[in-house]
Fold each of these.
Amino acid sequence: MTIRIKSENDIHYASHEAMNFAKDIGMNTLETTKVSIIISELAYNIIKYAESGFVRFSKVSTHKNEGILIEAIDNGPSIKDIEKALKDNYSTGGSLGLGLPGIKRISDLLEINSTPETGTHIKVTYWKK
Ligand SMILES: Nc1ncnc2c1ncn2[C@@H]1O[C@H](COP(=O)(O)OP(=O)(O)OP(=O)(O)O)[C@@H](O)[C@H]1O
Ligand SMILES: [Mg+2]
């Protein structure tokens, strides 16, 4: 499922849909809450730093487990220093700078591709525990 992110309403909608999706693959309340935090933080960054973009989520599975792949895609100015952006309290927007490091802590895999030419593409994988 792909959702265009342009306003705060879109963030609430995306977060709600992702929680339902996570629930449908058998995640418990703590897990669906984590999924919702991940998608909200990524979507807030899209609005704040790129104005608009997309989030999408899909099911990933192995023979043993299932999980959710959450992606955030925008054509904004890109993340200047990815290493710094993953550190606590680094923010170019004058806020707490805890979004990406928080996602890194609660997810299983965080991959960031970001260049001024291609924009920002973030992939987060979260497995059912
Ligand atoms: N989609 C994006 N496009 C461009 N830069 C981004 C994007 N997402 C994050 N960044 C950069 O990475 C930094 C860290 O992001 P992070 O979400 O951790 O913190 P924040 O958004 O500044 O603060 P918080 O999420 O705690 O309110 C941002 O300050 C910004 O410089
Ligand atoms: Mg943020």
Amino acid sequence: MTRYRLRDEPGVAVELLNLGLACCSLEVEAAVGSGALASEVGTERSPDSTVLLVSGTVTHALAPAVLRAWERAAEQGPVRVLAFGACATSGGPYWDAPSVVPGVDALIPVSRYVPGCPPGPDSLIAALRREVA
Ligand code: SF4
């Protein structure tokens, strides 16, 4: 779990647990690299929002780990879940593969879906901004 500030919303701290399961997670790194998401490592400040970001393909083999991550995050307080990209939303190009969960909402409640294969960093920032609004 890493705490970030949104560049355009400096007063808001987002605790972000990034489950980077496949290629979509590179877009998250791009958002950090661009400075749109700034890490707040070492600050004592409490987060304003906690977001579990599922970015990538959820396989049945990974499903227990995804569920555990959500349960652990939820133990600390309210947690919002972003399904980032087509795979996390619906299984994406692998929707009919027997090894793939056709959307992470089969496992945990999702508060926002971000379309795209992959969605760009701007889509991530826009979704986070809506979550913390
Ligand atoms: S939605 Fe596309 S880019 Fe994202 S993890 Fe799936 S295949 Fe990769």
